[in-house]
Amino acid sequence: MRKCLLVLAAIIAFGFKAGAQVDQKASYDFIERIIPGKSNLFTVEAIPQQNGKDVFELESRNGKIVLRGNNGLSIASALNYYLKTYCFCDIGWNGTNLNLPATLPAVKGLIHKTTPYQYRYYLNYCTFNYTMAWWDWDRWQKEIDWMALNGINLPLAITGEEAVWQSVYKDMGFTDKQLDEFFSGPAYFSWFWMGNIDAWGGPLPQHWMDSHKTLQKKILERERSFGMTPVLSSFTGHVPPSFKDKFPGAKVKKTNWDAGFPDVFILDPDDPMFETIGKKYIEAQTKEFGTDHLYSADTFNENVPPTNDSTYLDGMSKKVFNSMAAADPKAIWVMQGWMFHYNNKFWQPQQIKALLNAVPNEQMIVLDLYSDAHPVWNRTEAYYGKPWIWSMLQNFGGNISLFGRMRHVAADPAIALHDPESKNMRGIGVTPEGIEQNPALFALMLENVWRDTPIDADAWVANYAQRRYGQANGQANEAWHILLNSVYSGGLTEGGPESIIVARPTFKKYIDRVLTKLDYDPMQLAKAWGLLINAADSLKQSDGFQYDLVDVTRQVLANYASPLQQKMAQAYQNKDQQQFKLYSSQFLELMDDMDALLSTRKDFLLGKWINEARANGITDKEKNLYEFNARDLVTLWGDKESGLREYSNRQWAGLIKGYYKQRWAMFFNQLDKSLSDKTDFNADAFDKQVKDWEWQWVNKHDNAYTDVAKGDAVEKSKQLFVKYNAVILGTH
């Protein structure tokens, strides 16, 4: 009997081999990171998976909270469930409430949760640049903990990839100089990795490659310690420009992303070298980083294949997969389904079927990348039997905008799961181009992880407000109900509406890449603003409330910029110089006010972005290169003629006053002069002038922007409410 008890104790301590892997020390270390000094109030125990799916349990015993799970991820999810449900706490990017009761509340009975989803995917190639470009280990550690709390088990993990490519291509005889013409700067890796661009923002320093290879090892070790299975990268044919010279007999074709960058070179999968290089890459990557047999590959990301012939697409798909399987027979190809939406005229059912059916079903997973707005699964017979993942994209370019489709996110995953037409739906995912904004939307989406029924969005936002703000508040509840039915009932646009202030100066209501059309009544948002202002004295101690109040204030002012700009434009057309001066000065003043508001929160500081970029360098040359990358990505995106200008615009303190406002001031000065001189405004001359000024700004290293927040977020919001509320209400 004693022997049996010892065996039982060992099983509980180290996890059931059949589906339960709990590292006790790692779990207690995790709890200590989340709620310092409280890990001794919890007991961690292992239980096996249920029907092959992750599971957690929660109960009270002997004055402690017992967290049970089949891996570290399930233990973390149990902790998050406890903190949210029993302590009304909330852990997020933009404000965290961990104001725990003095005595932890007991759990009555046994809580048992099983996820209906085998896979819970996270990240998009673009997230690694629009948000994560400059992250160090401390920031990554926080994100991985957040992933664990929210049940993510399939994270994209592509940090440090360029170091593996360097190793592979050097072994093939390429020189450092040749690779300098290949590797992009660190803010542009996503599009380098996806085969869209070469070299822009480079040359890439060796220190970056070495330090980020080390960082990737830490990331993977931590993710795997929770029981996550990271998705690594693979070869999709993108080769250095000098490849065609080094191997003149190779089938290399030029392709262009059509965004103002030079051609890149893609090795045809028909070439025998394709499989050889793909195998070399997986082997080199596995040697450095290990493997969980999951590999991301998107051969035609925003590029159209040379032919729509099914035989070609079938053969190409087989060869891409074989290049993985040659090195790893257990390889599973994880494909972003973005191209099926982005180039939907090319990717008709016949072409999609040819691409997918070339690979065995259980060796491919398709990400339905944009299920929240433009699902593809429901027009492809659920990817013709392939395992696939319902995903929320939501954000484009890392733009700052209150936006989302909350009721869809609350209901559609569960509806799809139970739809007989969804066939082999294996999971849900979060695939945004940028994060660290709209925290409520992401929290709602991830609420689906441990349930298979639709979420009541109205009840959920009230509960969310209570745990985020640390107390129930009627006015906050009413404000959130308005937000749910306005900004968070977004239309079928590529992300949220931006503000005319971030546009290169114009008389138009919007320009390419800066869409200002609202899918909701801005007066409803103004009403929610008033309710939050009224609740401010009660809730101002909450970090999350401060963020939300600033964000709503920002959005109201960002929206107001449009009618103000149109008044300015009309006054100019009417040759009414007095009215023109009035509205143009009010427009510039609005930008100053927005900048001062956003200065109160670190979440909205250009200086934080720039200083984190510079911190990655060890020489002034490196620091300056990274600052160029940081400034360029969020403004021009490329050179002074870039067609992607403003794609990654941000409403940030420093960027508004130091960049957007300066452009508008130049514009207004020239317009005012043309009215005074009674001459026509020279749009071509201004265009050249502003492009030259933008390029100079992108190349500056003047230490002009702080990474320290200043001022009181609540007081500044109140001041702006007094100043603008009546004016804004008067515009409608």
TrEMBL record:
Give every Alpha-N-acetylglucosaminidase tim-barrel domain span.
120-451
**Protein's UniProt keywords contain NADP:** no
Q: Using the record's annotation, list all stretches that form the Alpha-N-acetylglucosaminidase C-terminal domain.
A: 460-722
InterPro entries tied to this protein = Hex-like_dom2, NAGLU, NAGLU_C, NAGLU_N, NAGLU_tim-barrel
What Gene3D superfamilies would the database entry show?
Chitobiase/beta-hexosaminidase domain 2-like (3.30.379.10), Glycosidases (3.20.20.80), N-acetyl-b-d-glucoasminidase (1.20.120.670)
| Name of one Pfam family that matches | NAGLU_C
Q: Is Signal a UniProt keyword of this protein?
A: yes
Which keywords appear in this protein's UniProt record, sorted alphabetically? Hydrolase, Signal
Q: Which residues form the Alpha-N-acetylglucosaminidase N-terminal domain?
A: 26-106
Residues annotated as signal peptide:
1-20
Q: What's the protein name?
A: Alpha-N-acetylglucosaminidase
Species name: Mucilaginibacter angelicae
